[in-house]
Amino acid sequence: MARLARKTVRELTPYQSARRLGGNGDIWLNANESPFDNEYNISLARLNRYSECQPPELINAYADYANVKPEQVLTSRGADEGIELLIRAFCEPNQDSILYCPPTYGMYAISSETYDVNAKVVPLTSKWQLDLEAISQNLDGVKIVFVCSPNNPTGNLLARKDIEALLDMTANSALVVVDEAYIDFCLEESASDLLSSYPNLVILRTLSKAFALAGLRCGFTIANSDIIDVLLKVIAPYPVPVPVTEIAVQALSEAGRARTKFQVLDISANRAYLQAGLSMLDGVTVFDGYGNYLLVKFPNADQLFKALWDNGIILRRSPIENCIRISVGNRDECEKTLAFIRSQLEQQ
Ligand SMILES: *Cc1c(COP(=O)(O)O)cnc(C)c1O
C-alpha cells in the first residue's frame, strides 16, 4: 500500500530524531533534553469532554512569561507543529518558497518538503551569522525565512542588528520566523520586544528544553494577532490534550518558573565545566554555546563518536566536519563524558 502514498512522501527522508537513531546507552546527551525530571500533579477528571482549542489559562500563562499579549500567542504540539502550521498557512505548494540558513535545525527543510514547498538554502557565514547579502539576492518567491537563535547545532546567537535588517528587507514580502527553542537559557537575548515594530516577525518557543518537558509536546508561536488568527484557521480543532494544559500551567506558574530558572543556572554551570574541560584537550575546539548544548570539533570525530556510542555515551554527530554536538546533562553525566573523551584522545 506504500505506493499509494503521495510521490513527495514516498521520496521523503524523515527527520533523524535522536529517538529514531536508537542506541544503547547509560548517558543520553543527544537530544538536548533536560536532565531534570520534575514532578507534576494531574487530575484525570473531565476527560470525557474535548479540550479547548487554545486553553485560555495556558495562553495567559505563556503570554505573561514571554511578556506579550495573549492574542499574540498560539500553542501547539511542540514548536515543530508551529513550523508546520506556518508553512501550511502561508506557502502555496509548488509555487512559494521558504528560505533557511544551514547549518541549522532540520525541520524547516523537512516540513517544507512534505508540503511541496520549495526551500532556498543560504548558508550561514563562516562565523555562523546571517549572510544578508546572499539572502537579499534569494528572496524571490520567499514567503517565510526561518532563522534560529541560539542556533541548533552551532550554539551561537544571531546578531540582533542582522535580524532587524532581515525584518526590514522582508517587510512587505515574507515572515521572518526566529526559532527561540533555547532562548530560556539566555532570555535577555529574545527578539520578542521587536514584535511591536515588525508585523512580519514570528517567534517559536517550546517547553521541551529549559522547562524540561520534551515529552509533553507543548510549544508556542508568538506573533502579531493577525498572523495568529491565520494559524488558528489551519490548526487541528483540539490540538492540546487536557493533561498537557494542566502540566504546562504548573510549569509556567511562579513556582515552576523559579524552578526552571534554578535549573537553567545549574545546566549553565555544567556547560561551563564541560567547555573548560574539553578546551584543555589537544586539538579540540569548543564553540561558545548559549543553549543547553555545545558543538565541539575533534581531530577524529567519527572514531570518537563510535567509541562513545559503543560505551553507552550517546551524543549527536553533527553534519559539520569533525563536529559532535553534546547536550549538557547533570554533573555526573558531564564528568563521565569528559573523562571518557579525555582517555580516548590520549589513546589516539
Ligand atoms: C528542539 C527544537 C525544536 C522543537 O521543539 P519541540 O517543541 O519539542 O517540537 C524546534 N527548534 C529547535 C531549534 C529545536 O532544537
TrEMBL record:
Q: Where is the Aminotransferase class I/classII large domain?
A: 46-339
Supply the alphabetized keyword list. Amino-acid biosynthesis, Aminotransferase, Histidine biosynthesis, Pyridoxal phosphate, Transferase
Reactions catalysed, as given in the entry:
L-histidinol phosphate + 2-oxoglutarate = 3-(imidazol-4-yl)-2-oxopropyl phosphate + L-glutamate
Q: Which residues carry this modification: N6-(pyridoxal phosphate)lysine?
A: 209
Q: Which InterPro entries match?
A: Aminotrans_II_pyridoxalP_BS, Aminotransferase_I/II_large, HisP_aminotrans, PyrdxlP-dep_Trfase, PyrdxlP-dep_Trfase_major, PyrdxlP-dep_Trfase_small
UniProt keyword Nucleus, yes or no:
no
Q: Which family does it belong to?
A: Belongs to the class-II pyridoxal-phosphate-dependent aminotransferase family. Histidinol-phosphate aminotransferase subfamily.
The record's HAMAP family line, in alphabetical order, gives: HisC_aminotrans_2 (MF_01023)
Which named protein is this?
Histidinol-phosphate aminotransferase
Species annotation: Photobacterium leiognathi
Q: Output the lineage of the source organism.
A: Bacteria, Pseudomonadati, Pseudomonadota, Gammaproteobacteria, Vibrionales
Gene designation: hisC
